[in-house]
Amino acid sequence: MRSLKQFFNKKFYIPALVVLVILFGLALKSNLDVVKEIKPASNVEEENTTDKTVSINKEPLSSNVSSPDIAFDKPVPNSAITEPETKPTNTNQQKDSISALSNSKAGWGLKTNNEHQQPEIPTSINSLLKKYKAYWIGNPEDKIVYLTFDEGYENGYTPKILDILKSNDVKAAFFVTGHYVKTQPDLVKRMVDEGHIVGNHTDSHPSMPDISDEQIKQELQIVENEYQNITDIKGMTYLRPPKGEYSERTLALTSEMGYSSIFWSIALVDWVPMPNGSDQAYQGVMDKLHNGAVILLHAISKDDTEALDKIIKDVKAQGYTFKTLDDLVKE
After folding, report:
1. Which of 179, 290, 298, 303 is the catalytic position?
2. What is the pLDDT of residues 38-72, one digit of tens each?
3. Is residue 12 over pLDDT 70?
4. Which residues, at least 6 apart from 221, have a Cβ–Cβ distance to it below 8 Å?
5. Taking Cα atoms as reference points, which of 260, 325, 261, 269 lies closest to residue 293?
6. Burial 138-165 (b: 16+ CB within 10 A, else e)
7. Can you tell me the distance from the alpha carbon of 299 to that of 231, in angstroms, rounded to the nearest whole number?
8. 309 counts as catalytic
9. Is the pLDDT of residue 23 over 60?
10. Long-range contacts of 323-327 (CB under 8 A, 24+ apart)
């Protein structure tokens, strides 16, 4: 009887043990399969995240980089993203981004002559000016001239200048700073009332390439607002860059704001008294006179003021006609 019990115990114990081992092995395999299914998915997500970061940072943003494509690759935290991720990217807008344009400062300069021919500037500069609605000269075939004045502050001569213009039936353009508009509202109103153009010469007369886009906008808008308060005229059309300094960025930005930048083809060193007084001012204009001339005078100059009537009369006597900047931009 005892041997029979031992037989059955051995007979059933061993298979039972085998079954338990098999069941345990199946359970362990099942758990491992589940882990394998989950873990690769987690790895894929981590790798994709890493790939995106590498892709974004592949072209690092640098203060020396001028390419708009690189500039727009700067990584942005998810918390700062306000637009839907599905919004299409306009690559043309990126390439045309004003902030990405060259900000290399250029000063206005001309190759002049005493043969009454138009001055010369490099073809590349001429093309750049045309691209951004900037002007410095008129048609070489037409005996037309354009008279402009810069007004940084009042030195007591503008009323006489306006009298001379009125008596000769000539319309001019006056480029005013913020200081001028704020301190001489009556003269600004008179300019407008007598048919002259009032242009923007910025609020504080900075070199525009030296300041940011927002600062440029502020400089121009301050003058616009003061001008509107005085005249009830909204907006201004023409800009003279202070010191004649500009860059592609500043030309593009001001053009986008609706301005035509106006440079010049005749100018005098007239912001200081001239050694030969009004005679030197007169000869300075007449010796360089040419078709399409944009003449720049500073209204603070006593010499210019005293020579102005004779300049206008003799320019007309040589067969030239005075027209306005509105006519210039229509050519």
Report:
1. 298
2. 333 333 333 333 332 222 222 222 222 222 222 22
3. no
4. none
5. 325
6. beeeebbbbbbbbbbeeeebbeebbebb
7. 21
8. no
9. no
10. 323/138, 323/144, 323/145, 323/146, 323/171, 324/146, 324/171, 324/172, 324/173, 324/197, 325/135, 325/146, 325/148, 325/173, 325/197, 325/199, 325/237, 325/238, 325/260, 325/262, 326/197, 327/144, 327/146
Is 21 or 181 the better-scoring residue by pLDDT?
181
Q: Is 123 exposed, middle or buried (0-12, 13-18, 19+ CB in 10 A)?
A: exposed
- pLDDT confidence of residue 97: 87
- The pTM score is 0.72
Task: Quickly state the pLDDT bin for 20 (edges 50, 70, 90).
Answer: low
Angstrom distance (rounded) from CA 203 to CA 81 = 35
Determine contact, residues 202/242, Cβ cutoff 8 Å: yes
Length of the chain: 331
**Integer Cα distance of 81 and 90 in angstroms:** 17
CB contact at 8 A, 112 and 119: yes
Contact 263, 294 (CB under 8 A): yes
Task: Specify whether 150 is catalytic.
Answer: yes
pLDDT in tens, 98-111: 989 999 999 999 99
